[in-house]
Amino acid sequence: METSQNRTLKGPLYCPLLEQMREDNLNNNNTQVNLVVVCIHGIFSSLGILENALIIWVLGFRLRQRTVASIWMLNLAMSDFLATLTLPLFTFYFYSSHSWELGYPLCIVQTSIFFFNMFVSAFLLAAISLDRLLLVSKPVWSKNHRSVARAWKLCALGWGWAALNTLPYSIFRSVIEKADSRKLCYHHFALYLSSEDSLEMDCNVRQGATAISKFLLAFFFPLVVIAGSYIKISTGRLADTLTLFTKMVTSVIAAFVLCWAPYHIFCILEMAAQYNKKIFKLVQVGLPVSATFAFLNPVLNPVLYVFSCPHFCVRIRQSLGAVFDGLVEEGGGSNLDRILQSEDSENKHKPGLGLGQLLRSHEPFPSNKLLFSSSSLDSYFLL
């Protein structure tokens, strides 16, 4: 009975880092700076929601025909749309002088969607990169195995994988009141299955596991796949198909790195923050700022995947449906078609079928629907 009373008097257990954050009185009373941050977040929120809603509307309801390209883009837009919907919550947090006044349920919602989008985006970017690599390096295999149904299944696998990886961040999340009465929506690794004896070890293991796993699974490994795919393509025999889109590839990879690298760096630094006061202060200021950069990714994605398409200035004068039809339309003469025609020309004096003839010989795939076409769509497939 005495032990129970002592525990009640002591209150809940907190990890050493979280205890420091509760006691720390970070000065966020600069009204002008807070106003600028709130305005920037408001702009991001509006742009991100409108851009991704527009893409979902067109790709989901206006396209005449589903393609693998449209499935990739639609799933990216849906994930990004969910992320941008939570931006107003993060904006209100800054508006409230870095205090979470929206309650526990919205804390869990905001956290879950943030990490869910992080994992989904990384998975889809890696999948698109591999798809592009297979498309140009193994055209026969791609012709026989790439389909809209399989693209949907792969996307569903990515969403399930992301949901599974998001669970630890949702479970160990709580609203904690600080000494100055402000509230934190933050990870609380001592929330479950911890005692005073094992507190420090539990906190270090859980924080280290989440920080390192999300760095590896949602940043490093996808980045290796993305970079490796494009290096392989650019050094292969089909490298000439990419010269017009090198800038696009560079922009996509650079945006992915620039938006998420600061966040992962600060999460890893946070592991040592409780032992170093300078690192603690740096993380206190830098982590919210780096999270803002991470939120930039779903806002920038529509620009990078769609609106940087070649000839868009011409297509923008057409209806929105026609614009996106042009982006994901299958048919016509693509760079790959020209390569296949070149293969036919080189093999016309040789017995048997050339590569282009072989691809066109399969009945289930009409020749006028061979793989993917238009320079605008090629730019998308570099993602």
Features:
single chain, 383 residues, Rhopdopsin 7-helix transmembrane proteins, two-stranded antiparallel ribbon, 16 helices, 2 strands, 71% helix, disordered N terminus
Any overview of this molecule?
The chain is an all-alpha fold. The protein has a single domain (13-381), classed as Rhopdopsin 7-helix transmembrane proteins. It contains 16 helices and 2 strands. The protein has helices spanning 2-10, 16-23, 31-62, 68-85, 87-95, 103-137, 139-145, 148-171, 199-234, 246-270, 277-307, 312-315, 320-328, 335-346, 355-360, 375-381, and strands spanning 173-177, 183-187. It has a two-stranded antiparallel ribbon with strand order 1-2. Residues 1-9, 242-246, 311-317, 331-344 and 346-383 have low confidence and may be disordered. One of its GO terms (cellular component) is plasma membrane. Its main location: membrane. It is a multi-pass membrane protein. This is Prostaglandin D2 receptor 2.
